[in-house]
Each structure stands twice: as structure tokens, then as C-alpha cells.
Write a structure and sequence with these properties.
By secondary structure, this protein is of the alpha+beta class. Strands 7, 8, 9, 10, 13, 14, 16, 17, 21 and 22 form a 10-stranded antiparallel β-sheet that branches. An 8-stranded parallel beta barrel has the order 23-24-25-28-29-30-31-32, surrounded by 4 helices. β2 (8-12) and β3 (17-23) form a beta hairpin. α9 (523-533) packs parallel to α10 (560-567). The model has no long low-confidence stretch (mean pLDDT 96). The structure holds alpha-D-galactopyranose.
Length: 700
């Protein structure tokens, strides 16, 4: 709901209130937190009056501006001839009946949207701030328009800036690396500035565009959390400053980088959308808000809450070393297991026998597949499988026909040889003709063959970018290709991937209902990675495969059951050579898939409770409660065994206190209260990495 009274703006619902007011032409931030029913008075700037003598440097603003006495992190930084810095003044507001599209991925079906209009007469620029309240959180973005005759350089315009009053705060962010994405980092907020950012052209393995601000002492289930996520796939920043008064300012947006984006008269710069959520129910409550918001309003409704195809992926199964015969063996091996789709990963095009060549040459390698994809797809159909295929649309190998024909299509700086990573360059997706060409090449394959699934990979960060403004155009080129593919092939599901989770962000999830979570398929590592990713992103967005042991990334061996249990907490798939499995392993897979299908509605559409933290508790334990509350899916995985371990009970959450639940595997009934307050012994074996899955049904 949006309420406006005497220049006080109040966005609220049962979950939160967010308020600001206008004073002497400036937008003063007054409150963000638990829902307030009587906003007037309390939300006026008078609550900030003891800050008055600090002038602009102590006042809490909706937009922090550089150059006019506010020296903290700005959310707007612009310049034009003879003028650096802005001083935007409030001009009015509008309440739009519904959220208008603005050319970038964003939360869907937003209702009423508050548009605040500001202008700077000296800079000759107009600034618009947009706020769309959803039940779970607020979507925000900004736009600046050059109204003057001189070019206006935008060096920074945040999607959102949020002020916090003096307090003791902690911050949680997700940082990592290839094979170990989204490690949960928690630290005290102390005086100074901290910047989480990417300048890699993609969101990156290193830092996810997510930040949670915690009032000190927050636990998994209790305490005030204010969290931020950007719906953007390129360079970004989420930064915060704790000032001399221990006030905190968080600023999030696209990282435009040095040089800025130049707007001519009438041109505008539009930021990506940022999402904020507030909860008083700890980190778990925060995650459940993000999950619900993204399931309802981000994921394409075609896929939201629905089971995704269960795939057998060829990568760890056969890598580059396949021919038609090997693929036939894989396909035949998948028969009868319950798998839906074969995904033919890297190596089917050009002359790609290793990673040294052929990216960009999206033509079938007739050496490996003399009959093209036709016989492979036919074989899939005979075995009840659909067919999916891998592309890396943004990449080009120096050793490729595409590069030989169009060397200038690769990102490059004239006079320098490009830097290769994984033996490849990146195509300049800010150029329309490049994106058009790649679309044409993909379209040719997708139109000729019966293909229901694409894995879109992206295996290196950008380098040799000739101008910083290319980064912005590059990301828009990626979105454009997604749009074109979606309108030409609406029934093809596109799985996102970037060397695993190098581009695991909400903008990719707008198009791809699932992303390959990590190249690390070791279930022990995956417990940590999936735990971290779940801070912000729903289980139904994580693509998880059971792979062979010893694991190819870590050399570790885990029981088949545990590999399945961990992979089941997301979009289940397999990535091992099913042609080489024992009958016993085949039977396990079949059972895993049957069980997954029976519970997919709970896992993908339910509410997640993280019961144990694999970073600190020696075990991983998650519980998903069906959206109607009637069923519970519970997974417990021990990490390392130690002798004579304590009998650790696990307390469930999110149940009805007085309802009776049956633990199907044990034939026992317990009340919700007993399960939540006394807890259960999970009953996994004592061995390293032993696990258990329990199914609970509510009886009354
Ligand atoms: C990346 C992906 C893998 C696989 C390989 C193929 O590393 O993350 O899943 O597709 O590329 O080269």
C-alpha cells in the first residue's frame, strides 16, 4: 500500500513500513522496518531533529548527492561542463496504477508504483525514483534524463539507497570462488566504507549482488534483517558506510566505472531494479521472503513452482570424448531410470575435442556425429527422453572460423592482443550485429531439431573492453538474446550457467528458471554452496546433479544416497556415465527420482528452514514445509564422524504447534510442538557423510 499525507510517503503492508518525507525540497528518509499502523507524526523528519547541526552530512536522505555538503557514499554522481555534483529538488509525485516495463528484467506484475519527480535546474536534469511495494518487499529503481544542451555524464546512479539510524549492525554477504560459490560471510559493521562489487562484466563467482544488514545478534530465526539484491547481471556495487554517528547508508546499483555514461539532450539512463526485504524473523525469515517473492514475481510463471526436467548431462559423463556410439550408450543407459532429458554439453560443434577451439562455430561436428543430431534425438525419443543442448553464446575461440572471419567482433583494444582465459575471447555483445548473428546460429540448430532445453554457459569474465560504457551495452545484449530466444522458442527451457555459479543472479533467473549452481558436484561442497545460495535464491532455482565418486573436483567419495539427498534440494539431475552403473546404483537412482517426483511440489514450492549450518555445525540439515503445511521434506547429512559423538537433536520449524505429524519412515506420530521444541534424533548412520531423508505428513 502507498499512502501519501502532507508530503509524507509511506509504503507498507503487514510485513514492513518504509517512509520518507519532503523537507525544504529534499527527500528525508525517516523509517524502514516493522510495519507501523499510524505513520503520521512518527514518520516526520522531527525524529531526526537532533541531527540538525550536522547539516547535510548527518541527515538521512533518499538520494545521497555528492558536492553539496553530504560527504558520505553518494547514490547520484553526475557532471557536466562547469558543474560537478547535483542538488535534486522535489517536484512532485505520481502513483502509477501498475508498474511500467522499463526494458530490463524486473519483478513481474507489480501493482501501484510510487514515482517521485525531482529536478536539478543547474545540472538541467530530471531524476525519477520508482518504488513498487510487493507483499514481501519493495522493488526500486531510478532514472535520470538530460534536459540540457550539454552532454551530461552519469558516473553513478543507484537503484536504491537506504539509510539506517545509529545502531550496532552486522553484515552478511555471499563471496566465493569457482567451485565454492556463495560462502556466507558475516562481519560487524564498523566505521568506514565497504564495497561489494564486480568489475568483471558478469556478477561473478567472487561476490553475489546480495547484502543483508542485521541488527546485532540476529540468529537464523530471530531478529531484524534488512536485505538487498540487485536484478542485474553485470558490473555492480552494493556498498555501505557507517558514519561518525554510527548511522549506516547502503547504496546499490550498476557499477558504471570510470568515465561514466554520457547522455545527450533528451537521453536517459535507467538503473536496474533493486529489491529490498525486511523481516524480524532472522536470516531464515529473510530467505523465505526472497524465495516467496521470486517464486511469485521473478521466475517465469511457465516454470514457477513446477518440477523442471530431470536431466542426464553429458559433461562429467563423457566430457569432450564422445561420438554417436557413446551417446547412444548413455541414452540407452538412462532408459527406465525416470530421467526426462539428455543434455548434450560442450563438444558437439566445430572441431572441439578440448577447450582450445571452435567456440562461435555453432555447426555440428560431423566427425563425431556423422548423421548430425537427428539420430541422437531419435535414440532419445526411443528411450523416452527429450533432448537438450549446450551453447556458450558469448564466447569465441581464437581458433574458430567465426574469429577468423570477424576478429573485430571479439572484445578488444586496438593495438593490444586480447587476453585469453580458458583459451577464449568474449564477443562484444554490445553490438547488435554480433548478437543477431549468434541468435541466427542458435536459431538454425533449434529450428532444425526437436530441442526442448538449452544450457547457456558463460565461462570467463570480460577483459579488453575498449570503453567502460561497453559493459552496460554488453549486459543489455545478453538480455536481448534471451528475449529473442524466448519469443522464437517459448517452449525451450534455458538453464543458466557461468562456470557454475559465476552469474547466479536475479536477472538471469528472470529468464532462466534454474542456474547450474556450481561446477563443484561434490555433495560435501554442495552442502555449503547450496546453503549460501539459499540465503537469497529459492531452491527451485538451483540446478544440482548427482555425479560419480571419487568426485572429479575434490576426489572425495560420498554415499550415493547422500549425493542424491543434497541434489534433491533443488532441481535434481544426473551427471555421470549411466551406461557404466551397477544394477544396485541404477535401482538407487530410480528410487531417488521416484521420491523426488513425489515431493517436488513441496521442495520447489514450499518454505525452507535451514536447521543446521554446514559451516559451523558439522552437519547440513534443511527442512521444507509444503505451502499448505500438510507435508514436510527433511534432509540431514552428517559431515565428518567423530568418536562417541553427542546425541544431537534437531528441532524442526514452521509447523503447527498442536497438529499431529507422522514421520513416515518411522511410523511414529509427534505433535508440531514436540518436533519443534523437543526435536528429533535424525537417525543417520555414524559414518562420514551419512544422511537421512524423512517425510512427514500432517494428520489433522
Ligand atoms: C563450464 C560449465 C560446465 C560445463 C563446461 C563445458 O565449466 O560450468 O558445466 O558445461 O563448462 O565446457
Amino acid at each position: 500500500m502507498i499512502q501519501v499525507t502532507d508530503n509524507i510517503f509511506h509504503l507498507s503492508n503487514n510485513n514492513y513500513s518504509y517512509a520518507f518525507c519532503v523537507k525544504e525540497g529534499k527527500l528525508i528518509h525517516t523509517y524502514y522496518g516493522k510495519a507501523l499502523s499510524i505513520p503520521e507524526g512518527l514518520l516526520q523528519d522531527s525524529i531526526l531533529s537532533d541531527c540538525a547541526c550536522g547539516g547535510r552530512d548527518w541527515t538521512q536522505y533518499e538520494t545521497g548527492e555528492r558536492g553539496r555538503g553530504d560527504f558520505r557514499l553518494p547514490s547520484a554522481l553526475m557532471r557536466r561542463q562547469g558543474c560537478v555534483g547535483t542538488d535534486f529538488v522535489y517536484k512532485g509525485y505520481e502513483i502509477l496504477g501498475k508498474k511500467e516495463p522499463f526494458g530490463m528484467p524486473a519483478l513481474r506484475d507489480g501493482g501501484q508504483t510510487l514515482k517521485i519527480m525531482l529536478s536539478d535546474e543547474v545540472m538541467k536534469a530530471a531524476l525519477y525514483l520508482y518504488y513498487t511495494p510487493y507483499e514481501e518487499g519493495i522493488a526500486r529503481r531510478a532514472e535520470v534524463v538530460n534536459l540540457g544542451d550539454f552532454p551530461l555524464t552519469v558516473e553513478k546512479l543507484a537503484s536504491a539507497s537506504v539509510e539506517f539510524p545509529q545502531g550496532n549492525y552486522e553484515a552478511v554477504n555471499l563471496s566465493g570462488r569457482w567451485g565454492a560459490e556463495c560462502e556466507v560471510c558475516r562481519a560487524d559493521v564498523v566505521g568506514g566504507i565497504r564495497i561489494l562489487s564486480s568489475e568483471r562484466g558478469v556478477t561473478s563467482h567472487q561476490h553475489n549482488p546480495f547484502l543483508a544488514v542485521l541488527e546485532k545478534g540476529v540468529t537464523e530465526e530471530y531478529g531484524n534483517v534488512y536485505a538487498f539484491n540487485l536484478i542485474y547481471s553485470g558490473n555492480f556495487y552494493i556498498e555501505y558506510e557507517s558514519d561518525e554517528k554510527s548511522q549506516l547508508r547502503v547504496v546499490a546499483g550498476e557499477n558504471i566505472l570510470h568515465g561514466g555514461i554520457v547522455l545527450e539532450n533528451g537521453e536517459k539512463f535507467v538503473t536496474p531494479e533493486a529489491v529490498t526485504v525486511f523481516t524480524d524473523k532472522g536470516l531464515g525469515g529473510m530467505s523465505r521472503l526472497f524465495h516467496r517473492l521470486y517464486r511469485r514475481h521473478l521466475i517465469n510463471p511457465k516454470y514457477a513452482d513446477k518440477i523442471r526436467p530431470i536431466v542426464i548431462n553429458s559433461w562429467e559423463s563423457v566430457y569432450f570424448g564422445f561420438d554417436e556410439k557413446k551417446l547412444f550408450e548413455l541414452i540407452d543407459g538412462a532408459r527406465g531410470l525416470g530421467i526426462d532429458t539428455l543434455v548434450l554439453d560442450d563438444g558437439w560443434f566445430g572441431k572441439r575435442d578440448d577447450d582450445a577451439s571452435s567456440l562461435g562455430d555453432w555447426f555440428i561436428d560431423r566427425g563425431k556425429l556423422p548423421g548430425g543430431l537427428g539420430p541422437v534425438i531419435e535414440r532419445c525419443k526411443e528411450n523416452g527422453l527429450k533432448f537438450g543442448i549446450w551453447f556458450e553464446p558469448e564466447a569465441v575461440s581464437p581458433d574458430s572460423n567465426l574469429y577468423r572471419e570477424h576478429p573485430d567482433w571479439a572484445l578488444h583494444t586496438p593495438g593490444r592482443e586480447g587476453i585469453q582465459m580458458r583459451n577464449q575471447y568474449t564477443l562484444d555483445f554490445s553490438r547488435e550485429e554480433v548478437v543477431d548473428y549468434i541468435f541466427g546460429a542458435m536459431k538454425a540448430i533449434l529450428s532444425e531439431y526437436d530441442i526442448s532445453y538449452v544450457k547457456w554457459d558463460m565461462n570467463r569474465p570480460l577483459s579488453d573492453v575498449p570503453d567502460n560504457c561497453v559493459y552496460d551495452g554488453y549486459v543489455k545484449g545478453v538480455y536481448r538474446l534471451y528475449e529473442m530466444l524466448d519469443s522464437a522458442f517459448p517452449d525451450v527451457l534455458i538453464e543458466g550457467c557461468s562456470s557454475g555459479g559465476g552469474r547466479f543472479d536475479a536477472a538471469i533467473l528472470y529468464y532462466s528458471p534454474m542456474i547450474w549452481t556450481s561446477d563443484d558436484t561434490d555433495a560435501c561442497q554442495r552442502m555449503r554452496i547450496q546453503y549460501g545460495v539459499s540465503m537469497c535464491y529459492p531452491l527451485q532455482t538451483m540446478s544440482n546433479h548427482v555425479s560419480v565418486c571419487p568426485n572429479h573436483q575434490t576426489g572425495r567419495t560420498l554415499p550415493f544416497a547422500t549425493r542424491g539427498a543434497v541434489a534433491s534440494l533443488g532441481c535434481l539431475g544426473y551427471e555421470l556415465n549411466v551406461a557404466e552403473l551397477s544394477e544396485e546404483e541404477r535401482a538407487i537412482i530410480k528410487k531417488q527420482i521416484d521420491d523426488y517426483r513425489d515431493n517436488a511440489d513441496v521442495i520447489l514450492g514450499g518454505e525452507l528452514y535451514r536447521l543446521l549450518n554446514p559451516f559451523t555445525d558439522g552437519a547440513f540439515c534443511e527442512e521444507v514445509v509444503a505451502s499448505d503445511g500438510n507435508r514436510v521434506y527433511f534432509v540431514y547429512c552428517r559431515l565428518l564422524n567423530r568418536p562417541n559423538m553427542p546425541l544431537a537433536r534437531v528441532k524442526l520449524r514452521g509447523l503447527e504447534e498442536n497438529a499431529v505429524y507422522k514421520i513416515e519412515e518411522r511410523g511414529k506420530t509427534l505433535t508440531g510442538g514436540e518436533l519443534m521444541h523437543a526435536g528429533i534424533l535424525p537417525g543417520a548412520g555414524c559414518e562420514d557423510f551419512s544422511s537421512v531423508i524423512l517425510h512427514l505428513t500432517k494428520l489433522n
